[in-house]
Amino acid sequence: MRIGVAAETAAGERRVAATPETVKKLVAQGHAVLVQAGAGEGASVTDAAYQAAGAEITDSAGALGAELVLTVRSPDAQALALMKPGSVLVGMLDPFDRDGLARLAAAGLTAFALEAAPRTTRAQSLDVLSSQANIAGYKAVIIAANIYQRFFPMLMTAAGTVKAARVVVLGVGVAGLQAIATAKRLGATIEASDVRPSVKEQVASLGAKFIDVPYETQEEKDAAEGVGGYARPMPASWLQRQQAEVAKRVAQADVVIATALIPGRAAPTLITEEMVRSMKPGSVIVDIAAGKGEGGVGGNCPLTEAGATVVKHGVHIVGETNLPALVAADASALYARNVLDFLKLILPKDEGLKIDLQDDIVAACLVARDRQVTRA
Ligand code: NAD
Question: What is the mean pLDDT of residues 356-374?
Fold first, then answer.
């Protein structure tokens, strides 16, 4: 099989879908790997390193014209025009973007969106949402620490004592857990909120305090259980009580890391303008949900501006929309391994391409085939 590795075209995208490590494995399995010149530059991987791993360096037409193309993000119109009908595309293709999927289907591609993989034990090694969210949670805290003009750890110095930073983490999925762990390593005091009761123990095990908002009705309890491990929209009654609890913590916080998301829906508003006003000057909000608020505006905070860092009411609000791309080398290394693990399912050893829809992971990731969008 000829496997192409395209250079990413989205603004600010520095990741790459294959690394010398994964190229070497694909070549060892008898595949030809065609890497677009400069594809690894943003992630500090040179063409020479790919060549040493057995890849052939080619141009965009060479990489995108392969039978199987690996990307990080969905190809733009120019890249799509270089792809061959009937070829296979594997990437983070945004399974909730119906128009984007329709474009892939119209181009005659068999497309797999890795974000659609189930969150099961078997799918863990190819779980791109986890590998990238982990990085986002880490980088969010590093950015906050960089902007914040005080220390994170409590320090006792000859010149006096410095208090530990108070960090509030909203949404404790993969990104939130890593944000807690990273802030903890830096010495902060941390409180965290989530709708799912199952995270309470995880929060405690990382040395943070869970902001408890008890469920008062069966409806609240049922919603909090979520579906497939994901959150569901909570009843307004619970959200109001959560907001009251969160507001108290946010007013005292130095740093807020907001990561709350509900798949396929707008990110919930958790930090109102009123709450931002209540924060101390110089505090920092990093809104990982930037660009995912109602109508694609805002994030967990309506004042967030996607792609920008702004100062509102004296508070720095970071709206970076692609945190993993800021840790491009490791983000690519982990993503490329996820891709390789997925390829094991559709390119079994010593066999050609095999799309087995009995395999729940393959079936879930398939978003376009035979010029049809296959995702419900
Ligand atoms: P996500 O990015 O979809 O959401 C981030 C967090 O926001 C979630 O914890 C969610 O509960 C929370 N949230 C939503 N609305 C909220 C609100 N109003 N207030 C506070 N928090 C809110 O989540 P994710 O990181 O993709 O993780 C989703 C689930 O998948 C988790 O249960 C995680 O443990 C699970 N998971 C399972 C596997 C596996 O078994 N293979 C792998 C990774 C993740």
Answer: 97
